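Entry 14. Ran structure prediction on the chain below.
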Amino acid sequence: MPGPTGRVLTLLELLQSGGTRTVAELADRLGVEGRTVRRYVSQLIDLDVPVESVRGRYGGYRLAPGYRLPPLMLGDDEALAVLLGLAAGRRAGLTTAERTASETASAKIRRVLPRHIARRLDTLQSALALADEPREPDRPDAEVLLTVADAVRHRRPVSVHYVDRDGRHSERTLHAYGIVAHAGRWYVTGRDTGAGEDRTLRLDRIATARALPGSFEAPPADFDPAQRVLSGFATAEYRHEVTLRIHGTPEQIRAHLPASVASLEDHGPAAGGDPADGHWLRVELRVQRLDWLPRVLAALDRPFVIERPDELRTLVDALAQRLASYARQA
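Output, structure tokens:
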């Protein structure tokens, strides 16, 4: 049975989990009487922990919102989740500060852990191997990210100073519908009121963001910010426009040509064939180079027709001849 100090720390942990806790609930969890709970609350207040008393039928105790508690109390599973989350965020590039910020945060959490838990986490991290080597991420400014996120939640227009990939500066008013993290970058998608069009902007290219008065209508209920960003990648302007017809299922095609690369459209069953045998799908994509596509089509191992460009047909034929020559070698 923990002593009084241990029960006070347990009380603090219960209050940190959020919400209002009744005296009866706290007494039951701590195994003490109600007046003892009140004494423990007084001890926390003496330590400058802002415990508030809530009156009424569903009253009790809660912590004042926005207060940073000096002791952050985490269980074994919680500590593991936080440390692995920080590591995964660094690997994925989904951070808004320098790499050292997440490293120092990890070090602070580890420093306050009990020794036996810290040793076990060190063992896991030393044994953990992550196969992907991420590129250096393009980090957005934290204040910009939070301002845009607040604009998304409260549907407030936001004025942004944007620098495009050619270095051109512009001031835009954006009705931000959602924030999307993809491949180590952060994006915001929404309505550019000046252009009168939906746009997707990279958050790391927004120098400043300022909330404006007023509000805007919510996007349609079926609007998916992530899908909008991915479809924007698939339809972006590149050197080559490619149109294919591939006989197979969307799952088979998406395994090699994801939504961020290609768009799919049902083209109907094969002519003269059994409809149960599958459908032809029209696949459209825009690419800067064609040399990688023949290998993808070979890996698909599905019947396909190249509608355009003719250059791709030549590259596929050349790959087929090379593979045939390799197969004939003894």
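The chain has a mean pLDDT of 80. Will compare against last week's run tomorrow.
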